[in-house]
Design a protein that fits this description.
alpha/beta; GMP Synthetase, Chain A, domain 3; 2 domains; nine-stranded mixed sheet; 14 helices; 25 strands; globular; binds methylmalonyl-coenzyme A; binds adenosine monophosphate
Length: 488
């Protein structure tokens, strides 16, 4: 495999990254990452304190150059989740911005400050395409999050397949405000433009104003504007809400080359509002931390709201019914539902130190079970209609296991029993609802107290947005909680 980042070797004066006032050319990025790569060389793994900054991008590129697997950490991770990830992945050091205050959970690790202005020789990338590049943590239905090991091969294959589908080139200027500790913001959103030799302008955090300013004509920036926008459906929903009274935003979206949504389904209503106001189509792509990207609506094609498009180059995709029947083209009728299973060079290597979980994720004949349920239209386009596990919640594009929140709630002294469900939410897609039997019915813990408790242990996006109090949870004869009855 050739280098992951050919444009780094060229070391040109072309812009590579912009985070607020921090801008780095390819030459500057190559020198800063080269200097850091020397400092971390030989480490078994490093954690990266993944704030939405140039420091994070430099740290991850340095780790890739040094051949040291990087574990991006959500800087808002609570104490229990952080302890789990650090204990599970055993990084040799944590890379962070010089000004970052790190939590006590990381106190035992050597800290290496990232200097985006440092200068060192460009490191030689490791030659082995199967070498681990990233370990990204993802929630399952039960138990604590698992580390997904992603190889250089998987990253290169997925980014190149997207380049094919979207005609993504070094001319593109990508704009987004995604977090940098998941595949969407980090692999697609940072490594993507760097592999193409194009530019990333990160918004720091998502805002409608930021998109209006950076995308399209680049009004008020004095420079050419962004050509491509990435976002989760919640972000596009907020843009759709703002469009009717924001002419600058309309011009920005109308002037972009490509608007891409992913991480969860973008509701048809939001697709339609954006197209009506701007004349532009949002295209959806479908992926997973374990598989990187599987399908996409081709760039430049007409509106296809509700569809995630066709398998990307190199990806094999099939739908399989409950009884194991593989759906052939005769069942591409837009109605017959099966689980999406995939194969291809975009797939992960393993769950870190979890051979049991890795084996369980594949069929006997080597297909990865996504757990997503879909239909195919007559022309092969894939439409996702649901997911197998009801205990997985997608909120704001984050995957969240109900079990991890239930365990956290049960640790609060005011909670006797707890169940967590996802309910439809126009902004977040799903919102987390906690059903709680208080230890003392006369003095139940307040919703805000429980939200803060979950935030402190896990992460803010895992906090319940609503708490409902019950005298008892509905259970079957075996004692299993009947979650469906909660909504009845
Ligand atoms: C609120 N906050 C709190 C609390 N309540 N902090 C501490 N304790 C509390 N109790 C803070 C939050 O941290 C946040 O701070 C602010 O208040 C607003 O919180 P919240 O309402 O939760 O955030 P939001 O504005 O609703 O966020 C919406 C969002 C976000 C921006 C769309 O959900 C998001 O960034 N989603 C992206 C998820 C993603 O990238 N998924 C990719 C994984 P502050 O405002 O300072 O932040 S999926 C993937 O990778 C696959 C491969 C794929 O297909 O893409
Ligand atoms: P994660 O495990 O956080 O990487 O999230 C992966 C999951 O996000 C997939 O299994 C899907 O359920 C969901 N997902 C990603 N992209 C889309 C999309 N465009 N439409 C619907 N669901 C999506």
């Amino acid at each position: 495999m050739s280098a992951l980042f050919p444009a780094l070797a060229a070391g040109s004066d072309r812009p590579a990254l912009r985070f607020g006032a921090d801008t780095l050319t390819y030459g500057e990025l190559a020198r800063a990452a080269g200097a850091l790569a020397v400092r971390i060389a030989g480490a078994a793994r490093v954690a990266v304190w993944a704030t939405p900054t140039a420091e994070t991008a430099v740290a991850v590129v340095a780790a890739l150059l040094a051949g040291v697997p990087a574990i991006p950490l959500n800087p808002r991770t609570g104490e229990r989740e952080l302890a789990h990830i650090v204990g599970d992945s055993t990084p040799g050091a944590v890379l962070a911005g010089a000004g970052d205050a790190l939590p006590t959970g990381l106190a035992g690790l050597p800290r290496i400050d990232v200097d985006v202005r440092a200068s060192g020789p460009l490191a030689q990338e490791p030659a082995d395409p199967e070498a681990a590049a990233l370990v990204v943590y993802t929630s399952g239905t039960t138990g604590p999050p698992k580390g997904v090991v992603l190889s250089r091969r998987a990253i290169a294959a997925s980014l190149d397949a997207l380049a094919d589908a979207w005609s993504w080139t070094d001319e593109d200027v990508l704009v987004h405000g995604l977090p940098l500790f998941h595949v969407h913001g980090l692999v697609l959103g940072v490594l993507g433009p760097l592999r193409r030799g194009g530019e990333l302008r990160h918004l720091g955090s998502f805002s409608v104003e930021g998109v209006a300013k950076e995308l399209g004509s680049g009004e008020g920036t004095g420079s050419g504007g962004g050509t491509v926008l990435f976002g989760v459906p919640t972000m596009y929903h907020r843009l759709a809400e703002a469009l009717p009274h924001d002419p600058a935003l309309v011009r920005a979206l109308a002037g972009a080359r490509l608007l891409v949504s992913g991480s969860a389904a973008l509701p048809v209503h939001d697709h339609e509002r954006i197209t009506a106001a701007t004349g532009r189509t949002v295209i959806e792509r479908y992926g997973m931390t374990e598989t990187l990207m599987n399908t996409s609506v081709p760039g430049g094609s007409g509106p296809r709201p509700g569809s995630v498009g066709l398998p990307l180059r190199g990806v094999e995709l099939r739908l399989v019914e409950e009884d194991g029947t593989v759906l052939g083209p005769a069942a591409y009728d837009g109605e017959t539902v099966g689980e999406i299973q995939v194969k291809g060079p975009n797939l992960f290597t393993a769950y870190l130190d979890r051979p049991d979980a890795t084996a369980a994720a594949f069929t006997d004949d080597g297909w990865f079970r996504t757990g997503d349920m879909a239909v195919r239209e007559a022309d092969g386009y894939v439409r996702i209609v649901g997911r197998k596990a009801t205990d997985l919640i997608k909120s704001g594009g984050y995957k969240i296991g109900a079990g991890e929140i239930e365990n956290a709630l049960l640790d609060h002294p005011g909670v006797r029993e707890a169940a967590v469900t996802g309910e439809p939410d126009p902004d977040l897609g799903e919102r987390i609802v906690a059903w709680v039997v208080p230890a003392d019915p006369a003095d139940p813990p307040a919703p805000g107290t429980l939200a803060d408790h979950v935030t402190a242990l896990l992460a803010p996006h895992k906090r319940p947005r609503e708490v409902r109090y019950l005298e008892a949870l509905p259970r079957n004869d075996m004692g299993k909680i009947l979650k469906k009855a909660l909504h009845a």
